[in-house]
Every structure is written in C-alpha cells, then in structure tokens.
UniProtKB/TrEMBL annotation:
PANTHER family the UniProt entry points to: D-AMINOACYL-TRNA DEACYLASE
Single biological process term from Gene Ontology: D-amino acid catabolic process
Cross-referenced Pfam families: tRNA_deacylase
Name of the protein this chain belongs to: D-aminoacyl-tRNA deacylase-like isoform X2
Gene Ontology MF terms: D-aminoacyl-tRNA deacylase activity; metal ion binding
InterPro entries: Deacylase_DtdA_archaea (IPR018033), DtdA (IPR007508)
Alphabetic keyword roster: Hydrolase, Metal-binding, Zinc
Amino acid sequence: MVTLVVATTIDPASIGPASALLAMPGWHPGPFLQDIPSFVNGEVRLLKHDNSIVAEDHLDKRWEEATNEVVDEIIFLSKHTAVSNRPALTVHPIGIPHLREDDVPPQGGKPGWAAPPSPRIGPWLRLLKKIAESHNLIPEFEVTLEGTHHGPVTNSPTMFLEIGSTAEYWKRQDAAQAIALLVWEGLGLGGCGAVGNWNRSSDRNKVLLGIGGGHYAPRHMDVVLKDGVWVGHLLSGYSLPMEDPGQSKVDTNVKDIGGTWKQSIRVAFEATQSAFPGGEVLAHLDHKSFKGWQKSAIMGFLAKQNIRVGKPEDF
C-alpha cells in the first residue's frame, strides 16, 4: 500500500512544499506515470505534474495500473485563494456532492461525487497548528479546515493541504517548510510513527460529519481541534441547497423541500463511512446557520437515514 503526494509545477504553493519535502533525506527517482515523474521514499510516492491540481483525475487508479502498487491515500499540495486575502494554512476533504448531473463543475470533480475523506484530516490539522506555532507562523497565518469542495476525482481517501491566500504567501518558504514538515512527520518518514492512522478497534471510533456553517467550518473546527477527534466530510451551507417551500414552517415535510441537500448529505455520509471502516459517523450540525424549517428538515432526513446526531462532547 502506498501514499501518493501530488504537486503541480505551475503552482508555487504546491511545488514549494514538494521541493522542501524532496530536500529531506531518503528520496530517489521512481517510475514515470505517462509523462509525470515520481520520487520514492519508503511507501510514499511524490508525483509532480504540469497541469492544474484539480484537473488530473483518477491518479490513484492510473498509478495502480502503471505500477501494480495499491494506493492507500492521496495528499494534494495546492494554493488557497480567498476573498479576504488572509494568510492561511488549510486542510480539507474534496468533492462536489451537491451538484446535479448536468452541472458543470467549476473546479474539477464529478457532480454528485465525494472522495473518501482522509482519516488524517483531524490529526493533521492539530499537528499543523503545532508546527505553525513552532515556526512562528501564528498569528500571521490562520490554520483552519475548509468545507468539502472541488476535484480532482479520486476513489482513495484524499485530502488537500493548502497555502493561502495571495501570490505573496504562496511563495513563502516558511509556509512551504511547515507543509513539508507536516507531510514528513505525518507520514512517519522521519522514523517516528505516522500520525492519523485509523484503527477500527480503537475505543475512540466516533467520526464527525460536519453539516452547515461557513466555508471555514468554525463550529466544527471547535470540536476537531480537541485531541483524538476524527473528522470526515464538512458540508458548508452552499453544499446543502434547499428550496424554501414558501411557508417556511417548522413542520414542513422533508419531501416538500427541493434542492440537492439530501443527495449531498447521503453522498458525504457514505464516503465518510467508507474511509472509517468500523467507525460510527455522527452528524454535527452548526445549528445557528440554519433557519427553523431547514434544521427541522435536515433532522428529519438524518433520522430517516439512521444517521445519529452528535453533540460536541460525543466526539
């Protein structure tokens, strides 16, 4: 089982951390995947392509077909953009589960799809915060989760590690070094144990499925920053399109509310379940982000799907 770390040469926030990682000991050239060079270190394979980071679909499947090595997980290195231009180091799962089949995805992926979220997301967010603090990147940089969004299409547990949010910060060597160190330590390349390996027999087997709130998932972040918490998909409000039935009554029937919100929850739940075999996926709601009729409909739908709702202390 191998881990793919994927970078693109056309993005300084991607190639910067990749170059810093390759400067660490133990790497040697690996096989090419079509015209994409690879580098090998233990069970880790770093790929450097020249395309948009969200455009190279099925890298896991393509690697397996080319090398006969089974891909266990994929980690993408990328830039982050934000309207606020705030310096940030972010971690997030990928998918566009709310899009309809005939929608054109704005940033790769496949409508109605979500990759299994890497079980490392929660543990690595906490590790990244420690590394950023020790490198004096905080408070200048915010260390944060992001909601599930964009492609590329993968079938293996996946996460994005991003540096934001403008060209000045994408090129920052100290930020690149922090992300490289996260991958180095997180995958156990330095000889210590890897961080965030899911163990189905652990007594801490509850997994947070975030529902609602803004893109940076503040209510869910509050929970995930606590030691030992596992996190799966994070569905921000924009990933839960709900059509107001008009009367906006709390007793509105679930089936009367249009939009792809039910599809989005179902897809995100199933993908999270697949990434955490033996775990119990609990929905964690940002209650204040919903109107009464929305919350009522979501709670009703979760109950019908036998998805339990968790409070912060449950995780």
